[in-house]
Prior knowledge:
Blueprint: E1 27-34, E2 40-44, E3 51-56, E4 66-69, H1 77-81, E5 88-89, E6 95-99, E7 110-119, E8 121-123, E9 126-127, E10 130-135, H2 152-164, E11 175-177, H3 183-201
Amino acid sequence: MPSDLPFARWRPHPWHGLSVGPDAPRLVHAYIEICPFDLVKYEVDKETGYLRVNRPQLFSSQHPTLYGFIPRTYCASRVGELMEGAERGDGDPLDICVVSERSITRGEVILNARVVGGLPMLDGGEADDKIVAVLENDPVWSEVSELADLPRALVERLRHYFMTYKLVPGQPGTVSIGDPYDRATAERIVIAAMQDYHDTYGGLA
C-alpha cells in the first residue's frame, strides 16, 4: 500500500470531514470529546483529528453532560457579533453539551443532538458559546424542546462547571456567563458558526 496517501482517505477529520448534521441548525452532529465525570480535559487535535490530552482537571468539578463540538462550525466574527462584549469568536469549532439519560462512557463518538438552548460564555473577550442539546430519540429527554424544560439544577451545574474549569489558583478568572438563552437564539448561533466556517474554510471536505 503506498505510504504517501493521506490518512483522511480512510478516516475523515472529525472537524472538517464530517457533516454539520442531518437538519442543522435544529438537529446537528456532535463529536464527543469528554464524557461526564472525566477528570481529564481532552480536545481534538486540529492537525490529526485524534483526541489529545489537554490537561488534567485541577479541581473536583466534573462535566455534567457529554461535551464536544459541532463539525464544520467555527467561531469567528459572525459568532462574536451575537454576544455583547465579545471582540470576536474564540477561533474554535462551536462547543456543544448533550444531555443523555443513558451513560455514554467513551469519547470519539458521533451522535445526533437536538438543539434546545445555550450558555453565553465570554472568555477573555472572546465568545465561547456552549450550545445545549438533547440526544435524539432519548427515552427521557426526547420531549424537551427548550432549555427551560431541562431541570434548573442541571443548567446550574453546567454554568458552575464552565465558570470554574479554567481557574488557576492565585490568578483571577477570565470567564463570565450571562443568562441562558433559548432554542431560537442557539440556532442563530449555530448558523453564524456555520457561516464563519464557510468564510474561513470554504468547501473544505
